[in-house]
Amino acid sequence: MSAQIYSVFTTEAIHAEPLDYGAVSLSTMPHCIKVIIRGEHDNAAFIAAVQEATGLSAPTRANSVSSNDTSELIWLGPSELLYRLHNETLLAGDTVQRLQNALQGVHSAVVDVSDYYTTLKLAGPDARRVLRKGTPLNVDVALADGSDCAQTRFGHAAILLTQADGQAEDGFILQVRWTYAEYLWTFLAEAMQEYRT
Amino acid sequence: MSHVNRIEGIGRIRRGRAVRFYYDGRQYFGYEGDTLASALLANGVHLTGRSFKYHRPRGIFTAGSEEPNAIVQLESGAYTEPNTRVTQVELYEGLRANSQNCWPSVKYDIGAVNSLLSRFLPAGFYYKTFMWPASMWMTYEHFIRNAAGLGKSPEQKDPDRYEQLHAHCDVLVAGGGPAGLSAALAAAKTGASVIIMDEQSEMGGSLLASDETVDGVTAAQWLKTTLETLGTYDNVTVVPRCTVTGYFDYNYLTAAERVTDHLGIGNGGYSPRQRFWKIRAKRVVIAAGAIERPLLFKDNDRPGVMLANAVRTYIRRYCVLPAKSVCVFTNNDSAYDTAIAVHEAGGAVTVVDTRQSASAVSVKRARDVGITVYHGYAVSNVIGSRAIRRVEIRRLSDDAQSLVGDPVTVNAQVIANGGGWNPVVNLFSQSRGKLRFESGIQAFVPDKAVAINPSVSAGSCAGVYDTAQCLATGAEAGEIAARAAASDPKPSVPMPQLTKALAADAVNGRDFYVVPANTGAAEGLLQKWNDRGYSKHFHDLQNDVTVADIHLAATEGYRSVEHLKRYTTTGMGTDQGKTSNVNALSIMAGIQQTDIPSVGTTTFRPPYTPVTFGAITGQNRGELFLQARKTPMHAWHELNNAVFEDVGDWKRPWYFPRHGETMHQAVDREALATRQSVGMVDASTLGKIDIQGADAAWFLNMVYTNAWLKLPVGHCRYGLMLNEHGMVFDDGVTTRLGENHFHMTTTTGGAARVMAWLEEWLQTEWPEREVYCTSVTEQWAVAAINGPNARALLESLTDEDLSDESFPHMSYKSMKVAGLDARVFRISFTGELSFEINVSARHGLALWEALIDAGKAFDLTVYGTETMHVLRAEKGFIIVGQDTDGTVTPFDLGMSWIVNKNKPDFLGKRSLSRTHTAASGRRQLVGLLTDDPDTVLPEGAHLVEGHVRRVPAVTQGHVTSSYMSPNAKRSIAMGLVTNGLDRLGESLTAQLMDGQMIGVTLVKPDFLSIDKSPETKPEKGQ
Question: ipTM value of the model?
Fold first, then answer.
């Protein structure tokens, strides 16, 4: 048998040179571990287990994020969280195992979606205006607080919006199914055209 | 720079900047700040086109977006735009425009013969004449389009870029005149977020052409100060060149911004040409202004007849006096401002006032400067065709029903026509607000009591014509809107309205709009059509509709306003009757001897002015029209000459032609090689759902027709999903990964639908059940290897035992393949020995390339979706959506084995026993063999009894799948046939559209005589 690893992409699903027009910039983000955690938010055992496994307090307010330097817990629904972990040495499978161990005996589901989604970063003073070209959501209200997140659409792509480092000034992180990433990038690049000089 | 009609002054033009442009091929010059209309008038050009029906010469009628006449073909080739209003086109260097609707030229137009024939072209002419015979309609339509059409559509791809932009605000102000600006300022002061939009190149509205004193300063100074003040507010967005085009429910509005049109072709830099705004406003202030109403008289369509306020605007804003001698024809005070403007510009002016007397300040002022005023007179005749040479006026009788006395000749080349004002109630009406007819100003105004969406109308669109009152109502409206938005962020009604009375005084007009015809007309039929001499009183200039046409409509019974509109075409076209609707209503009211409210008004529909398709489309064109989703192995497919097929939004390899193969040759090769050695297909697009929870097995038992509770861990099962009606709506293989953990696959196109279906049942019917579903479609890349050498190929990449004993059909193993963590499923969609290898999406290409390398030893052949379809059809496996269409039960598919009758319940079960579903005579899936093995039936072909062509034929069913099978060495097909399962062995005929009759025999859909593998059915027997 062959153990040779062929062309595995190690960063993200699409390869694109960053765009930087000053007022707004666009880049791909490094690959990170992404895990869907299902469980009832009003189940104290579930919340406790998630906290134990991630070191983060689970966000119980709708559309909010708790985070530390390397990881985020994102509220996706009344029984759904997304755990994102930025760690180049850990394997997704180990993270899933750690969560499953903590949630043993609690009604829950832990699913690795690291490769399902990819993330782009849109930053700069005019990033909000670029977002408004594709999303009908009132971003100013939905992402008023640094710990806010939102699930909406940009053009035809369903996206999850969070704020880089918990601050809108640092830009927005757009998470999207990787098969939509090329479309999303192309749309954002088009929407940014007017900022070219 | 010499412009024959340019006068001294500053206005809003920049005299230092000459701009060259071309009209009908001739070169002219204007200034920056000019519109095409003002530049043409400055150069003495009045004639801008020919009319729609009679090809009469027409000129510039207005100075704004209400223009019915002067619409031109702007630019050429890919950049051409028809029906462009010259009054809205800002002049730019090199602009080229051509008049429309005339051939060979605007001055000598062959179609003008229609004018001579006008007696025979009354309203409804086209309907009446071209009705019979119906078979000729296509020919007639072609003729009519050519003879009567407006501009020409561009035939090339639009090279410009457009964009959509979503916006949210507390207060949207539609209109940037005095009322709108005051409203924006008042709202801004409260801290509300404000967007103010105006269709003109700069804010100001009527103030741009005003010599009034506003708040103690000149209009220009007030405007400058106000805009500067607005500029200091971060919470205010001022958008010029932007028309609020639509007002929809829940305060959703659309607007079209012309971002770079005014810069000329190719000068827009990286900005889009136009931007389409989609706005959610908590409250709306409508400050859309008013449009002047024309008086109607004989030959009132001649070039040189203009609205009075347009003449004033050309003089004061653009420093253009449209003619040295002007006749102001009016029934009210407001047009006297125009007379004064002409006088101050050095022109000769005569006022013809239908009123017996008038005493307003402006009237006195006109008399004081020596302007001649004829009271109680009306314009009776316009001399001249392509231009006005002189005007004849006559005294009105006391009852205004006839003209008396001898004509008086007035020397004038322009008639400034002012019959009062109509508030622009379009947006209010679009928002489903009701209108009220205000007899004091003879106009429709918003009826506050029945606003459906929360808006306030202010200024002249609410019937307030005095500038000071516009400022006051605007300020109050702005504050009301901002406070309402702050106290109740939802767009709810009712909302507070203005405290000031809106009913107006203002213009002090005479209720008189149509000048009586000079004489009685000829007798008989012609008289009827010409109706008392009104056949040259044009009330709708764009559609060439006359006062006589309305009489004709009334005579023929088209009295309802909606019938009137459709019969005469009044109010249609690019201007939507902005200058004609109210006149049409008042004429019909006069004929019926009733009042305007009794006749009613037509509904105003968006858009307010035409919007380009480009703007509406925005970014959704070209590669952004539909996302192209690609699998992780896409790059390999591209390198290896794949021809792609669109499957939903996925790009899937269709076939892989080698060395100039046709599709047929490639598919033959791929299908043969797979059954002879091993073939591989990219199956990554299959929908995948991770299902976990203590009730997961119970849940599957409910959503599938077969039994799931006892499926052992590590085993797979094929399932059919039914909807509530018992009809098949998806299928796929689901695997038990753990006691409470399943991996479900769905059809490629059904992934989202199945996920929504599962969630709907879990959330609405079974919330107490412990089941979680998570979509994982794109988490996994899938390579499926099929064929007798599939096991040997996989063995070369793994240490796992793949023997039948260790890894039987319909089971699953987690293993390393080519060093990658993989989930391998031994399931088959071809009937061959088959493994579906799943790895993380990031590793998909690596897995694929490893299989390709290892496959060289086994002559591995990669195949696409077409071969996949052939291989499955050879075994009679169905494709949901191709062999089923939402009317097919499992029994209809001959798959009764998959329906577990012992289960207490499953989705769709009850419907299977409904009378109709259980009755005989249903269409059932069977195999079809053509008498001639080389003939491939077209999919969709209908099957009939007998060999003689009959029309109409009674169909026995139709072909759902049809291919040439290289393995069966003949054509194969499947079809849904009435009682088909009981008719195996019978013959039917496919009756084709082209007359061919193709004999077929009904068989079991298993087309391979030698069965090389026991895996004939995906799961039967388990």
Answer: 0.94
Q: Is the pLDDT of residue B297 over 70?
A: yes
Judged by a CB distance cut-off of 8 A, whether residue A19 touches chain B is: no
* Residue B408 pLDDT greater than 70, yes or no: yes
What the block records as the tokens of A64 is 């909010």
Q: Which residue has the higher pLDDT, B630 or B496?
A: B630
Q: Do A136 and B166 touch (CB under 8 A)?
A: yes
Determine contact: A40 vs chain B, CB below 8 A: no
Q: Which two tokens stand for residue B629?
A: 């989703």
Shortest distance between the Cα of A29 and any Cα of chain B, in A, equals 15
Residue B272 has its nearest CB partner, among A2, A155, A194, at A194
Question: Average pLDDT, stretch B198-226?
Answer: 95
Residue B882: pLDDT band by 50, 70, 90 thresholds? very high
Token look-up 């409508």 returns B286
> Does residue B51 surpass a pLDDT of 90?
no
- Please give the average per-residue pLDDT across B370-387, as a whole number: 95
A33-112 maps to CATH 3.30.70.1520: yes
pLDDT at B612: 95
Residues of chain A with Cβ-Cβ distance to B854 below 8 Å are 2
Q: Determine the length of chain B.
A: 1022
What band does B907 get if pLDDT is binned at 50, 70 and 90? very high
At B930 the three-state DSSP class reads strand
Is CATH 3.10.20.440 the classification given to domain B14-148?
A: yes
Same CATH fold assignment for domains B162-290+422-487 and B907-1020: no
Q: Is B970 on the interface with A (CB under 8 A)?
A: no
| CA pair distance B584, B534, nearest whole angstrom | 13
A contact test, residue of B164, B166, B273 with most A CBs within 10 A: B166
Give the Cα separation of B618 and B599 in Å (integer).
40
Any chain B CB within 8 A of the CB of A18? Answer: no
Closest-approach residue (CA) in chain A for B794: A1
B842 with A182: Cβ contact below 8 A: no
CATH 3.30.1360.120 assigned to domain A3-31+116-195? The reply is yes
Q: How many CB pairs under 8 A join A and B?
A: 144
Q: Which pLDDT score is estimated for B141? A: 56
Question: Which residue out of B263, B619, B748 would a mutagenesis test of the A interface target, given it has the greatest number of A Cβ atoms within 10 Å?
Answer: B619
Which pLDDT belongs to residue A49? 97
The Cα of B205 is separated from the nearest Cα of chain A by a number of Å equal to 28
Query: So what's the pLDDT on residue B1016?
Result: 43
Which one is predicted more confidently, B124 or B435? B435
Pick the CATH number of B162-290+422-487 from 3.40.30.10, 3.50.50.60, 3.40.50.300, 3.30.2290.10: 3.50.50.60
Domain with CATH 3.30.70.1520 in chain A: 33-112
Determine the 3-state secondary structure of B72 from DSSP.
strand
Alpha-carbon span A152 to B166, nearest angstrom = 13
Q: State chain B's mean pLDDT as an integer.
A: 91
| Sign (positive or negative) of CA dihedral B797, B800, B801, B804 | negative
| Interface probe with B: pick from A82, A99, A190, most Cβ of B within 10 Å | A190
Q: Kindly tell me if the per-residue pLDDT of A18 is higher than 50.
A: yes
The architecture that CATH gives domain B629-906 is: 2-Layer Sandwich (3.30)
* Predicted confidence band of residue B143 (pLDDT cuts 50, 70, 90): low
Nearest-angstrom CA–CA distance, B731 and B741: 19
Burial of B507 (0-12, 13-18, 19+ CB in 10 A): buried
- Measured from the Cβ of residue A29, the count of other Cβ atoms closer than 10 Å reads 16
| Surface of B (223-282) touching A: CB under 8 A | 269-272, 278, 280
What is the percent of chain B with per-residue pLDDT over 90, rounded to a whole number?
77
Give the model's pLDDT for residue B217: 95
From the number of C-beta atoms within 10 Å of its C-beta (0-12, 13-18, 19+), residue B132 rates as exposed
| CATH, range B907-1020 | 2.40.30.110
* Chain A closest-CA separation from residue B250 CA (Å): 14
